[in-house]
Specification:
By secondary structure, this protein is α/β, with parallel strands linked by helices. The chain is built from 22 helices and 19 strands. The chain starts with 9 loop residues before the first strand and ends in a 5-residue tail after the last strand.
Length: 539
Amino acid sequence: MNMKNPDAATRPLGAQISHMLKSRGVDVIFGIPGVHNQEMYRGIAEAGITHVLARHEQGAGFMADGYARASGRPGVAFVITGPGLCNILTPLGQAWSDSVPVLAISSCLDETAAWRGQFHQMRDQRAAAATVCAWSKEARDAASAYALIDRALSEFSCERKRPRHIQVPIQALEAQAPAPPAARPPVHGATAPVAAAGDAAAAIAEELRAAKRPLFVFGGGAVAGAARWREVVERAGAASFTTYAGRGIAAGHPLDFGAGLARAESAVVIASADLVVAVGTELAQTDLWRERLGHEGRLIRVDIDPAELCAEPLTSRAFQADAAALAEALLPLVGGAGRAGAGWQGAEVAEARARWKAECAAERPGIVPVCDALRAALPAETMIFSDMTQFAYAANEVWPMERAGHWHHPFGFGTLGYALPAAIGGAMARPGKPTLCIAGDYGFQYTLPELATAVELGLGLPILLWDNGKLKEIEDSMVRAQIAPQAVSARNPDFIALARAYGAHAEAPGSLDAVAEAVLAAFEADAPTLIHLRAGIAG
């Protein structure tokens, strides 16, 4: 008998938390144990949860982020007091920026006001996490912990999906606690009731019928309703743009300008529209890379977050609604008579896309041919996780996605080191389905030790490493600013030898055909495969 747990209905709170998470549908937890949070590990195996051991809390956070993006369910991470919580703040900041449901649960010291100099002590741990989370709360007893976990999971289902942090004092984790309450019924978002979606749909449909050159701009918030939005734009005779996060929403639509918003000419195109409907997008700097969208006609904004609806001062109408629910309500109201004369022509769209692709190829030589070769070879259901690297910057523009929500990138916060751990989390969320990691030589080294985690998990994960031997994007920016490039070159390790030292496979293909072959073989391998590409690879 476990003398610390004489009553089967009573366990230390740390163990009860795992059982509660399991009862709420959590199957995987990412993290690192330590003496302060070891009680949180008491119940993981007993609850039937898989734990993935990261090599750094930053990796654990990115893994939880990748798991959430790939599965649509919250990603959960366990970290220790102090440095563990600090280390996960960057992933939490990325999850905040990109609206990803990550729940970080940490231990904390029992008292910090009078007793100084404690192990892992920091001035205000909860407040630190609050700077990058929707909220950060301390649960001082079992009832509070259970309530906060349910609150976080409920809010993920009905509000903008941003990270939450819960910390529990060490003594509370060790204390005996009753079983958590039974799971509550699912919460349906108050921001998207059927009636409200219907009212918004009727108003937007009326505006679409009056417009001669209607244009949709889709962001990541519209991904859940992608199939329906594609039908809406076609029936309405509308053109479309997507942000990088929204790629694939209008896949195959002949009037889709793609992810070209960052091109200066896109502002001219947008100005020619007499109605713009922006759905699930902040229209942020990282979407536009200019101050304003560029519209001169009416702008309708749709978002689940009311704060975004008044962010653009030239908005004509705004609707707080869930994008997927709105698409369902809007679909039967658009299309039919009068749309054949809409003012967009497929030729103008195709010509613009071709110009923008050529511009991108000239700006970042050698990348576009690799993108084209890979796209032609990859299985349709491949999910891609990329890092802050020139390869991904180009690919985000020129790689048309056939499926929405299948390319994940650290768009807003823009942190290096994202791709590898996020791809691990994504692969855990989709066992048996192809996942591809794309990283640059510099950013890859931020979280390189997570390669060991991928090896331990036996993941058939291809890691496409674009190696130009420097911080090329920064060098180019310095040159444009007439700054003599400084601190942009670094000595790289032998990546092939390093990968093999970790137990991974490694390849250095010399042609585009060989790159595609190496990636396809890596999907079937018993361990991750590092595929080392140098700029200037032959066709």
